[in-house]
Amino acid sequence: xxxxxxxxxxxxxxxxxxxxxxxxxxxxxxxxxxxxxxxxxxxxxxxxxxxxxxxxxxxxxxxxxxxxxxxxxxxxxxxxxxxxxxxxxxxxxxxxxxxxxxxxxxxxxxxxxxxxxxxxxxxxxxx
Length: 127
Description:
Blueprint: H1 2-10, H2 14-23, E1 28-29, H3 30-37, H4 41-53, E2 57-62, E3 65-70, H5 75-85, H6 94-106
Antiparallel strand pairs: 1-3, 2-3
Helix pairs in contact: 3-6
């Protein structure tokens, strides 16, 4: 029963729903999510940790960077998550997806990104 409560808690926050909507398209680095949501890295990390504890996402470390994706290993969680995400209106995350697309377009294939507007990114070359 605690597992179900953790899932509902994780799904009860609009920022976490926005993160999940972004991850619906595939794996993202923390800096991708920070840029898309225009929020601080500590705030995003807090929300990612909540989603991970609920078993909704998994992470993969690559060097210093951590990449996140939806966890599709459990049918029940995956079904519940997809049921929730499909009910979120597309226009609710349009700006997030536009910021993400712009950021990813500027991001070189090696993932090293120079700071944008004097903000340090998790995959910045000088961080």
